[in-house]
Write a structure and sequence with these properties.
This protein has 260 residues and is α+β, with helices and mostly antiparallel strands. It has 7 helices and 9 strands; from the N terminus they run αββαβααββααββββα. Strands 1-2-3-4-5-9-8-7-6 form a 9-stranded mixed β-sheet. β1 and β2 form a beta hairpin. The longest helix has 41 residues. The protein is elongated. The chain starts with a helix and ends in a 5-residue tail after the last helix.
Length: 260
């Protein structure tokens, strides 16, 4: 009988040991998984495109990609420019372009860039030299981003909500001579074969109709387009670095619920 009691106690002790070892093992496994996955998410660099860009196949969702604002964009990238000066901001956008190019994103893809800035701060960040009346004629609702055109080149755009059309229209005409100098660096495609920052001519805006929309287009004598801008239903102002992005953003805006 003593031996039977000993064997029963021994079995209970063995079960307790297994329970403790198993519990410790689970805790260790949880810690390892957190270090490998949870820790790596926390260490991702701000503005870094991590996993998925439209055109690639993946079942995961990158931590830096979120969803839309004014228009239906394929992706929204968080890129905090609030503490950066103009040159630093340009470098961040340039880095985003290079990351997107490495991922061979689809043609006509729109990637919105959330700068963490209100509109007036964004314009002032780019050394805005137009009249302050333009800023006051716009609301703080805007979308800034990149568009991959049919030639696999990036066109940059900014879509802004208009508060006072007459003031905004007149103020844009005043700003025209300086738009190239204010926005050229931020709106340049740095992945293109030619990335010269020198501007050979002053702004040369002329009227042109794109998809039944009156626009003003700034181009050189050789036809090189630098900027396109126009108003949509007097409610929105679009400024882009190419005609394809202007048409695409216009169509997305008109096809959304924003203007209905």
């Amino acid at each position: 009988e003593q031996e039977s009691t000993f064997n029963g106690s021994d079995k209970n002790l063995f079960k307790k040991i297994l329970f403790i070892v198993g519990g410790v093992g689970i805790i260790i496994l949880i810690i390892v998984l957190f270090i490998l996955y949870g820790g790596s998410v926390g260490n991702k660099k701000e503005g870094e495109i991590v996993d998925l860009i439209p055109g690639e196949t993946s079942t995961s969702t990158p931590q830096t990609i979120q969803r839309k604002t004014l228009i239906e964009a394929e992706a929204v990238l968080q890129l905090d420019l609030s503490t950066s000066d103009k040159l630093e901001s340009v470098e961040k956008v340039k880095n985003v372009q290079n990351q997107l190019r490495d991922r061979n994103i689809n043609e006509k893809t729109v990637v919105e860039i959330d700068t963490k800035l209100n509109l007036s701060d964004f314009l002032l960040k780019n050394k805005f030299s137009g009249d302050e009346s333009l800023i006051s004629s716009l609301t703080n609702s805007y979308t800034f981003g990149l568009f991959n055109n049919s030639n696999d080149m990036f066109e940059t755009f900014i879509l802004m909500k208009v508060d006072s059309f007459d003031t905004a229209f007149a103020s844009m005409l005043v700003w025209e001579p300086y738009i190239r100098y204010d926005l050229n660096e931020m709106f340049k495609d740095y992945t293109a074969s030619s990335t010269s920052t020198l501007l050979s001519e002053n702004s040369n805006f002329k009227d042109r109709i794109l998809r039944n929309t009156d626009t003003r287009i700034d181009s050189d004598q050789d036809g090189t387009i630098h900027f396109v801008y126009g108003f949509i239903n007097k409610e929105y102002l679009i400024i882009t670095s190419g005609t394809e992005s202007f048409i695409n953003i216009r169509d997305r805006l008109l096809n959304s619920n924003v203007l209905r």
